């Protein structure tokens, strides 16, 4: 497996970072920063690159980073009901609350007169967003901003996207209906999929950055400063920049957690995923850790339907011997229809326990009808509740529907295949 390149070990990036930091006896945050972009396929691994990765920190390293971003700080999911927040988190006034945007998280890095834009996936995407290049003129050198790239336009949405699948959200709640506003991620996805960006795409699907954190200012690393201090300087910077493509992510206010919970109920209609909770005195950490402070993502419940498993494929890594990647379908007609069929609409591989996955694997092996390379077609016998974050019309899919981040919420062993949901159920979620 080592020779063929198929050897996989389930080790998290955070564990690798800590191991390298311990080996080299340097700060893990410095190792994490050096690792950004390290696995880019365009750069072959070499002894020289590895030695640079674990080299002792130098005094002038900070000045020689070029466009190197910082590792992103990630949030933990908050599942408890709002009436427990006071005991769990303390008073709401100790937290900075924002909307959780449905866009592309990115860092804007301005150094040496140049602007770099990095996605959370450690991909350099500067060329994909030419309308943001003007920020190189207004942002001072030694600035790194963390924020969200979103589609920003008047709400005359592409007819392929249902406006109600993620209603436009104006930052100014008092703005007229025609005011520019955040649009559904499905529009941004159309733009991401283009190899070239013509004038029409840039006009029809313009983007802006909603900034929510300042990681570097005047060449100094600000991650060890408290959240409220970073936020104050960020707002001052944006105000002085006076750019139409850079604006602060609004901070929400509420008298208590229950008041904020009431505001959160409007998330779906506003086209946002819920709220972000950031301790006002928290530092900016690395990855999903709690040693520097805590961010919480307080997301709304996902969309869900009951779907039928029709195809299965073996997984990767420790799941390479199990059928763990599944394709799900819904009926194309109501139960009373005489010749209805199952139409595939989503693939999912997460959500089951190891024990459940072993049971499903055994059933897949017993009910396989036909194989297409690595994919097995099975007799429809299993129903699962599938959850997903967003839904939109799509001409690329046989079902006419595309969903975002599908995963299995539970195995519906109590439900017969005939009672699974239909395309009508999915279409109703668009409205």
From TrEMBL:
Record-level Gene Ontology MF annotations: ATP binding; DNA ligase (ATP) activity; metal ion binding
Keyword Phosphoprotein: no
Gene3D superfamilies associated with the record: DNA ligase/mRNA capping enzyme, Nucleic acid-binding proteins
E.C. no: 6.5.1.1
UniProt keyword annotation of Transmembrane present: no
Residue intervals of the ATP-dependent DNA ligase family profile domain: 200-332
Gene Ontology biological-process entries: cell division; DNA recombination; DNA repair
Catalytic reactions of this protein: ATP + (deoxyribonucleotide)n-3'-hydroxyl + 5'-phospho-(deoxyribonucleotide)m = (deoxyribonucleotide)n+m + AMP + diphosphate
PROSITE patterns given in the database record: DNA_LIGASE_A1, DNA_LIGASE_A3
Keywords: Cell cycle, Cell division, DNA damage, DNA recombination, DNA repair, Ligase, Magnesium, Metal-binding
NCBIfam families for this protein: DNA_lig_bact, PRK09247.1
Name assigned to this protein: DNA ligase (ATP)
């Amino acid at each position: 497996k080592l020779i063929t390149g198929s050897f996989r070990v389930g080790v998290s990036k955070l564990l690798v970072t800590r191991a390298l930091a311990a080996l080299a006896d340097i700060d893990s945050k410095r190792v994490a920063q050096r690792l950004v972009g390290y696995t880019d396929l365009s750069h072959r691994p070499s002894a020289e690159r590895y030695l640079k990765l674990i080299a002792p920190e130098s005094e002038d390293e900070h000045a020689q980073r070029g466009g190197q971003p910082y590792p992103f700080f990630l949030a933990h999911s908050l599942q408890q009901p709002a009436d427990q927040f006071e005991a769990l988190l303390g008073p709401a006034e100790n937290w900075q609350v924002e909307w959780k945007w449905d866009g592309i998280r990115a860092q804007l890095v301005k150094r040496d007169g140049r602007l770099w834009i990095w996605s959370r996936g450690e991909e350099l995407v500067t060329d994909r967003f030419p309308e943001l290049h003007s920020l190189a003129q207004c942002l001072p050198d030694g600035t790194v901003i963390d924020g969200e790239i979103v589609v920003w336009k008047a709400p005359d949405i592409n007819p392929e996207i249902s406006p109600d699948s993620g209603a436009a959200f104006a930052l100014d709640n008092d703005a007229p209906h025609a005011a520019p506003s955040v649009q559904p991620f499905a529009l941004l996805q159309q733009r991401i999929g283009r190899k070239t960006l013509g004038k029409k795409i840039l006009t029809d699907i313009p983007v802006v950055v909603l900034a929510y954190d300042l990681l570097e200012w005047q060449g100094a690393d600000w991650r060890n400063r408290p959240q409220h201090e970073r936020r104050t300087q960020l707002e001052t910077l944006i105000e002085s920049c006076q750019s139409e493509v850079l604006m602060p992510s609004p901070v929400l206010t509420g008298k208590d957690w229950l008041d904020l919970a009431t505001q959160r109920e409007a998330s779906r209609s506003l086209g946002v995923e819920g709220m972000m909770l950031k301790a006002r005195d928290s530092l900016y950490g690395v990855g999903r850790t709690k040693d520097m402070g805590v961010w919480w993502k307080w997301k709304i419940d996902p969309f869900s339907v009951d779907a039928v498993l029709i195809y299965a494929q073996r997984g990767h890594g420790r799941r390479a011997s199990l059928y763990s990647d599944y394709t799900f379908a819904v009926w194309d007609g109501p139960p009373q229809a005489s010749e209805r069929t199952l139409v595939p609409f989503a693939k999912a591989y997460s959500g089951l326990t190891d024990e459940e996955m072993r049971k499903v694997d055994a059933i897949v092996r017993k009910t396989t009808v036909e194989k297409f390379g690595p994919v097995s077609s099975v007799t429809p016998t299993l129903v699962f509740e599938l959850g997903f974050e967003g839904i939109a019309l799509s001409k690329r899919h046989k079902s006419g529907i595309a969903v975002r981040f599908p995963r299995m919420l539970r195995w519906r062993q109590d439900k017969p295949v005939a009672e699974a949901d239909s395309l009508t159920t999915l279409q109703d979620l668009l409205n």
